[in-house]
Design goal:
Elements lengths: L8 H4 L5 H11 L17 E4 L5 E3 L1 H16 L7 E5 L2 H14 L2 E4 L20 E4 L6 H9 L4 E5 L10 E4 L5 H19 L20 H10 L58
Length: 282
């Protein structure tokens, strides 16, 4: 920034407001970075085009659309009637975590054709609301939702088609951090509207859980982690303890084969009955 330009309020202030803190998260996750191609229907959400022809999305409109989508999701009575779909690998972990914390259903991976229209299939679903990660990649569920009148909330980039999309959230839907952050903001706002978590405090679930994790990186991290072998701990005075200390009390040994009849007295305090005479021969 030049010296004569006024810095944004969330950069100048030492303590950020909750909305400004979300803006910083969105900028750090590159939610505002679009593509070099802009759809005519997405031009309203484009803030500026850079010199390298990359379109920059307006994060203010992105935040407003996230709040609007959260209100629509919270308005559904049964959370299981909300279905989040992602065929893109970067969004599969995000939709699974979103379904875990909000109680909705999720379809991560390949979408089986006929899931919303063919009642004979085992995967048949009748959701009341559909959330998709990319209208271009998830074109099959969007097409089927138009047949059965299911409203669609979509994460749309600058080049995404908006056909059969009811609520478009302008976002970079090709980055792992961008997709994970948007689903985290959606889940947090839905839980706040339902009253599950207070609005005054930060959500205890970290946003890292919504990010895509490469299986190769997980294997490398597990291989590099040191193996800790716990040494056995000895109690003071126990047999085999070399540190000394008072000896542990020794329990009295019980002879093998000693039964109830060997006791000196019976249950009523009397002496045991006389032994039965040995059986005589035939």
């Amino acid at each position: 920034f030049r010296s004569n330009q006024q810095l944004p309020s969330f950069i100048m202030s030492a303590e950020l407001s909750p909305q400004d803190a979300d803006y910083q998260r969105m900028i750090a996750a590159e939610v505002h970075i679009g593509t070099k191609i802009a759809n005519d229907q997405m031009k309203d959400y484009v803030w500026v085009r850079r010199q390298d022809n990359v379109h920059v999305l307006n994060i203010s409109k992105t935040y407003d659309k996230i709040m609007l989508a959260a209100r629509v999701i919270a308005a559904v009575e049964n959370p299981a009637d909300v279905c989040a779909v992602s065929a893109r690998p970067y969004g599969q972990r995000s939709v699974l975590k979103f379904a875990q914390y909000t109680g909705s259903s999720a379809i991560a991976g390949r979408f089986t054709p006929g899931t919303f229209t063919n009642q004979i299939t085992k995967q048949f679903k009748e959701p009341r609301l559909l959330i998709i990660t990319d209208p271009r990649t998830d074109h099959q569920p969007v097409k089927e939702s138009s047949y059965v009148n299911i409203p669609v909330i979509a994460l749309c980039d600058s080049d995404s088609p908006l056909e059969h999309v009811d609520i478009a959230i302008p976002v970079n839907n090709k980055g792992r951090y961008s997709i994970g952050l948007v689903y985290w903001l959606l889940a947090r706002e839905v839980l706040r509207l339902r009253g599950s978590i207070p609005r005054e405090h930060e959500w205890e679930v970290p946003v890292d859980l919504f990010f895509y994790r490469d299986p190769a990186e997980i294997e490398k991290a597990m291989a590099a982690a040191p193996v800790v072998i716990e040494e056995p701990q000895y109690q003071a005075g126990a047999p085999g303890n070399w540190e000394g200390g008072e000896a542990a009390p020794v329990e009295p040994e019980v002879e093998v084969g000693a039964g109830w009849d060997d006791a000196g007295a019976g249950w009523d305090g009397e002496e045991g009955a006389a032994a039965a005479p040995e059986a005589e021969g035939w």
